Amino acid sequence: EVVLTQSPGTLSLSPGERATLSCRASQSVSSNYLAWYQQKPGQAPRLLIYGASSRATGIPDRFSGSGSGTDFTLTISRLEPEDFAVYSCQQYGSSLTFGGGTKVEIK
Amino acid sequence: QLQLQESGPGLVKPSETLFLTCTVSGGSLSSSNYYWGWIRQPPGKGLEEIGYIYYSGSTYYNPSLASRVTISVDTSKNQFSLKMSSVTAADTAFYYCARLHPVMYYFDHWGQGTLVTVSS
Questions:
Q1: Rounded to an integer, what distance in angstroms lies between the CA atom of residue A73 and that of residue B85?
Q2: What digits encode the pLDDT tens for the residues B77-93?
Q3: Nearest residue on chain B to A86, alpha-carbon basis
Q4: Residue B52 — pLDDT band, cuts 50, 70, 90?
Q5: Residues of B in contact with A92 (CB under 8 A)
């Protein structure tokens, strides 16, 4: 099973700042099979990025994904108030697993 | 607009069987090439895939849960269901149903989720 480790656990930033979230895999993951989700309290996850770098429908271009192999990154170029949430990565290899999440909170 | 909605008991006793249904609207389970999956999330913790099913009935289960889980589909009702036996307090979680892309394996549409508590 591929284990995804997300860091940091919590990121404290101000609106307008840049957020850089890391997702590290215990073994190589095909870029085709790496996705990112946003989850707000009391809500279901929402797909942000698939295929490591493709934005899902309706996702603003301030969200971008990059990476390959075992290291992937989600970047939010300028945080808007609605971006403060928990972000999780997910991979598919021989099985499907999620990372533990990074909480982006208001500083 | 595709929508998914979970339904089922919010409280299940230890050792009993959890049963949830996901009703799909705005699209047909059997006319698309997608998988349909279940994911759970203990309060305050991360997401865990439970398994998924194709409209034809073929299934995949998380190996850690496979011995207790059955996912089935009813195309006539546009629903798919989760059955989990011998539940314990560790199965207390929010349970989500979602649509899974068949090639790139990401979940693009989610239900709102339902909290299932295992307690006597």
A1: 38
A2: 999 999 999 999 999 99
A3: B46
A4: very high
A5: 104-106
